[in-house]
Amino acid sequence: MLLPSILYFIRPSSVGFVENGLVHLCVCTRVTRNLNMEKLRNGYLFPEIAMRELEHMKKYPTAKVISLGIGDTTEPIPDVVTSSMANHARRLSTVEGYRGYGAEQGNKALRKAIAETLYGDLPIKDTEIFVSDGSQCDISRLQLLLGSNVTIAVQDPTFPAYIDSSVIIGQTGDFQDETGKYQNIEYMPCRPQNNFFPDLTTTATTDVIFICSPNNPTGHAASRKQLEQLVEFARANGSIIIFDSAYAAYVTDDSPRSIFEIPGAREVAIEISSFSKFAGFTGVRLGWTVVPDELLFSNGFPVIKDFNRIVCTCFNGASSVAQAGGLACLSSDGLMAVQSVVDYYKENAKILGDTFTSLGLDVYGGINAPYAWVHFPGMKSWDVFTELLEKTHIITVPGCGFGPGGEEHIRVSAFGHRECILEASRRLKSLLS
Amino acid sequence: MAKLQAGYLFPEIARRRSAHMLKYPDGQVISLGIGDTTEPIPEVITFGMAKKAHALSTLEGYSGYGAEQGEKQLRAAIASTYYGDLSLEESDIFVSDGAKSDISRLQVMFGSNVTMAVQDPSYPAYVDSSVILGQTGQFQKDVEKYRKIEYMKCNPENGFFPDLSTVSRTDIIFFCSPNNPTGNAATREQLTRLVQFAKDNGSILVYDSAYAMYISDDSPRSIFEIPGAKEVAIEVSSFSKYAGFTGVRLGWTVVPKELLYSDGFPVAKDFNRIVCTTFNGASNISQAGGLACLSPEGLEAMHKVVGFYQENTNIIMETFTSLGFSVYGGKNAPYVWVHFPGQSSWDVFSEILEKTHVVTTPGSGFGPAGDGFIRVSAFGHRGNVLEACKRFKQLYK
C-alpha cells in the first residue's frame, strides 16, 4: 500500500505529509503507539520478499521469475474437495441447506474427522480439536491466551510468526542488532552439528517452547528420541510445548507426525496444524489446534477452557465453506487425492535437493518437508538471495530471515509446477557449477 | 483470562436454549436470541463462491496465499460501494474474516496500555477483548463493571446517546451505530459531537457499522460522513448481517491514512503489520462471495434480504407496542429493545423462555445499563417470527 514518504511536523500536534505532490496536514491523536509494535524489526519477512520480487520484475520485465521463496502451494486442489465446497456454497442458497453461525470451535463432523482420520490410534477427542482459519491466526490466539507474562523459547532458525507474535503481545525485550535477537526469548540453535535439534542440556527454562517438526525452514523432522527428550524436558520444567505439525503429511520415514505419539505429551503439549500445505488451502484458510484436557496451568486450571474462551471471544469460526472442503479432504477419496499432490511436491523437493547436492553444496531437509536448506559457507544469506535472484531470476528465502541461526543458509521451497522446478534446477546448475 | 466473568454471552444463551430443549423436547423453541441470520443467501452470491471453488481445481484458476489485506478487486469494490463519495480508497480497506476477529486484532494492535470507553449496553466483544488484552482492572460485582473501562450509559432518558459532558477521556472509544443491542442509530448531529469529542481528547474512535444497511432514515451510515472523522476514526463492518455471511465469514476494517498516533506514526501501518503477522487473509472463496455481493445484482439481492428482516422487525415492534411496552430500536436495526421496568433481565429472559419457548437475550448481558431490557432479534423465518409474536401476545395480554 502507498504510504506517505515524507512526514514532517508542522505544529506541535499535527503532522504533514506529501503525497502525489499535494501537502496534507493532519492532526495526531493523543494515543500512544503500542511500544511492542515499535520493537518489531522492519516488515514481516514474506511481504519483504514479495516487495523485492516486485522490484526485480520491474527491473527485468521480460525475465521469467521462478518463485521458490514463500512456501505457497501451486497445484490445483483435487476436484473431490472443491466440488464439496462448491456444493456447500450452493446449498447456502436453499432453505434446507442454509447455515448461519457455526460453532466457534468448528463443525462437529470435521472435528470428529480430524480426530479419527489424522490422529487415528492416538486418544485425541473431537472436543480437544479447535478448527481455525490457519496456523498463523492460531499462533496469535495462543499468544493472547498465554499473555505477556510468559517466556518463550524458539528454535533458531524458526518460522518468524512465533517470534513476531511474541513481541506484539509484549513477552519480549528489545531487538539487539548485534545478536539479531530479541531480549527475553530463549533461542535454541538448530544446526547440522546438533542434528537440527536443540541441545536441551544448555537450554534455559521457559514457560513455552515452540517446536516445528517437520521444520520450517530447515526441513528436519525430529526423531522419536528427540521428541521424547523434549517432552521429558517440558515435564521436568513445567513448560508448555507448542508443536507445529503443519508439514506432517510430508514425513517420509518413521519420524513422528504428532507430538502426541510421545507418551506424556498430553500433559505438556498443544499441537497446531493446517490444511494449507496438506491440501493446497493456503488461500482457502483452514487449520486446527489440539489442546488436550490434561494440559493444566500451574493452578490446575485447564488450558482448554481458556482457549475455548479465546476462540469464542476473539474469533467466530472458520468459514463454513472451507470446513466443508476440509471434511472432503478427510474422506478416503479426498485423502488419496491430496496425498498425491503432497507427493508431487515431495518429488520437487527431491529434484531440488539433488541439484544442490550435485553442485557440491551441503543440503539439508527435503526428505520430510517441502523445503531444502542449503549451506553457503562464509556468505551472508541476503547476499546469496540477491545474487540468485539477480543471476537466475529465482526467488528463495535468505536464512537470516528466520533468525541469526539461519545465516549462511538459503531456504528453497519445493512448491511449484514441475517445469518451473526443472527450469530452476537448470539455471542453478549453470550458475553454480 | 482469570478476570473474565463467566463465558462469552452468546454461548451461554445457547447453553440455556439447549437445556430448555432437553426439558421440553416438544417445545418448538423459536430463537430470537443470538442475531443469527436465517434466510438463504441469494444465488448470485453463492454462485460466485461455487465458481471460485471450482476454479481452484484448475491450473489457470488456482490461487494460493492472497494478500493479507484482501483481494485488490474486493477492496476496491468495498471502497467504491460504501465510501465512494467519502474519498476513501482501496488501500484504506482491510478485508477480514469478520468484525469479531477485527475487534481483537485492533485490540492487539493497541496493546495493554490504552484505556477504553464503551457504550453501556454494548456488544460484549469490545469489553471482553479489552479484559483479555490486559487493559482493564478487576470486575466489580456490585456495579457489574470492569475497573478502568469508561462505561457510557445509553438509555431512553438520553435518547441512547451518551452524555459526553460526563464521559472521562479515554484513548479508545468503541461506538456501534446502528446499535447492537438497543437498535438506536445516532444522528448526524450526535456523531458530529462524538467526532469533536474524540478530536478534543485526542482519542481514537472505533466505529462499528455492521448494521448500516438496516438504516431506514437519513442517519449516517458511516462515521466518515462526518467531517474530520478520518483523523480520529477506524470503522469496522461486516457482510454477516447484509449477506447472511455469519457462517461464511467476511468483513472489513477501514483505517484512514490520516489517523496518527501521538508521535505521528500512521495507525494504518501498524494495523497492516498486525494483519500480516497475526492473520493470513480471509478465505478466497468468501472473498469471491463478497465481490458478487457488490455487483449490481448482488447489491439488489442483499437489499431484498435486509428488507425481509426489516419487515420482521416491524412485526415484532408492533407486537410489543400493542401490548403496552416501551419499545426502542427496530427502525434502523434488526433488534428491538423492550423495556421491562424494575425487572431483572435474566428473570424476564427465563420467564419468556419457560412460558413461550422463545429465546431472547437479556439486556444485562450487554452491560449493567441493559438490565430491565430484553433484546429481541429480528432474524428468523417469517413463520417463526409471527408464531413468536402470537405467543408474546398470549403471555402478556
Automatic annotation (TrEMBL), chain A:
This is Aminotransferase class I/classII large domain-containing protein. It comes from the Eukaryota. Its cofactor is pyridoxal 5'-phosphate. It comes from Vitis rotundifolia. Belongs to the class-I pyridoxal-phosphate-dependent aminotransferase family. LL-diaminopimelate aminotransferase subfamily. Keywords: Aminotransferase, Pyridoxal phosphate, Transferase. InterPro entries: Aminotransferase_I/II_large, DapL/ALD1, PyrdxlP-dep_Trfase, PyrdxlP-dep_Trfase_major, PyrdxlP-dep_Trfase_small. Residues 64-415 form the Aminotransferase class I/classII large domain. Pfam families: Aminotran_1_2. One of its GO terms (biological process) is systemic acquired resistance, salicylic acid mediated signaling pathway. GO terms for molecular function: pyridoxal phosphate binding; transaminase activity.
UniProtKB/TrEMBL annotation, chain B:
InterPro entries: Aminotransferase_I/II_large, DapL/ALD1, PyrdxlP-dep_Trfase, PyrdxlP-dep_Trfase_major, PyrdxlP-dep_Trfase_small. The lineage of its organism: Eukaryota, Viridiplantae, Streptophyta, Embryophyta, Tracheophyta. Its cofactor is pyridoxal 5'-phosphate. Transmembrane segments: none annotated. One of its GO terms (biological process) is systemic acquired resistance, salicylic acid mediated signaling pathway. One of its GO terms (molecular function) is pyridoxal phosphate binding. Belongs to the class-I pyridoxal-phosphate-dependent aminotransferase family. LL-diaminopimelate aminotransferase subfamily. The keyword RNA-binding does not apply. It comes from Vitis rotundifolia (Muscadine grape). Residues 29-392 form the Aminotransferase class I/classII large domain. Keywords: Aminotransferase, Pyridoxal phosphate, Transferase. The keyword Kinase does not apply. This is Aminotransferase class I/classII large domain-containing protein. SUPFAM superfamilies: PLP-dependent transferases (SSF53383).
